[in-house]
Amino acid sequence: MESCRCCERALLAFALAFNPCLLFGDAMNPLDLDHLVQPDRVHRSVYTDQAIFDLEMEHMFEKTWVYCGHASQVKAVGDYHTLHIGRQPMVMVRDRDQSIRVLYNRCPHRGVQLCGTHSGNTGSGFVCPYHAWSFHLNGKVRAIPLAKGYEGTRFHLDDAQASMVPAARVDSYRGFVFASLSAEGPALLDFLGEAKVAFDDMCDRSPVGEVEVVPVCHRVVQHSNWKFFMENQLDALHPSVTHQSTGVSARRIEDRVKKNQGTAPLYFHYLSTFASSFDQWDSVQTVNFPYGHGILKAYMGLRPTDPDTLEYEGILKKAYGETKAEAYLSRSIHHVLIYPYLSVQSPLQQLRCLRPIGPDKTLSEIWHFRLKGAPEAIYRRALWYFNLVNSPATMINADDLENWTRGQWGLQSKGGDWVSFHRNTGGDTETNGVAYSNNGTSEVVMRNQFKAWQAYIRPAIQTAVSVA
Ligand code: FES
Ligand SMILES: [Fe+2]
What does pTM read for this prediction? Predict the structure, then answer.
């Protein structure tokens, strides 16, 4: 594997940052990944160190398949959506042939970003706001003002460097678009593996097998390392602690409404289940796949027998037949994690995507989707969950955010060097590379994520050692 200058600089900084006399004792190799990330504990620096963050961006985010957006975000020719893959500004755009392109959002003239907003329509091509170089929707240069100024120079319009640079690979699965900035690596479906069920589960709940993005995105900048979020999503121990006050209050009101009216709206249940007992959480299984992906199985019981649900289930059965519809409705999924950046709550049509900014700063994009062909009442449920649990205004998300910020502060301190992932070590069942927790609160989730983390980072460290 080749190492670029940026990577070598990051590794040098990394080596300096890990003065073994300060952190590990004299015998410690400053690039000893096996010491930094052990099977049951990791060194705090993997959450706080700028050089390690740079390695993550270069060797994880800028190499693996990264979620760009949903095809319905760019429905019409010229529709675009901007995003970051690692540190790289990109634009996803609908081309004239209906294909979706993912290009670096950078003018090849003097580097100006061509699209300056989150989304919009760029017409039949991109026009740079600086000197009006223009480009087709596939990124190829279209025209340059006063082209005669380049006569006799070594600049040529047919040179690839005159055009916008495309992502090395773009692919999609059931309307969810991914790009990789590396020409090498597994195909998208091999990368997703079993975790592709996130998209199957979401789409199969539509009677026509498709979802459509709701074009409202909550964007939250978390003052914590991206790994806090990823670990938290399948952390079944924290809800009844972190979210206890919300859960208990919601249950109290839910009980009162039930007493007075016979039933309570489902949104009370969204919140009241957070107050489940430790034992209840411990009985929910996590399934931990290669590449750090994972599933937290269902615990909420999202099939009430109200008229809206019964009508919806009837529509699904008509579309797919009794057996298939039943299989779709009874999949045991609450969260699917696609490591290192995506959390999908498919039964509730929610998706959260991380765009790391720095070791202690992470942007999360929070989206939800509409099941095409399903009744409006079913969409309202997705919207309730979006607003009550995942939006930045909720007590649930706010409590998580506070934990992660305080976690970041703690790991930046000198109060200890290690992060513990010891819970239920050795107590999980591993079959064909998949770890099934026998206790829902097992920290196998984090252990599995760091196994994948090491696989991404190890080649960079080995390159650095051979360079030295
Ligand atoms: S920087 Fe884009 S045209 Fe000059
Ligand atoms: Fe939480």
Answer: 0.92
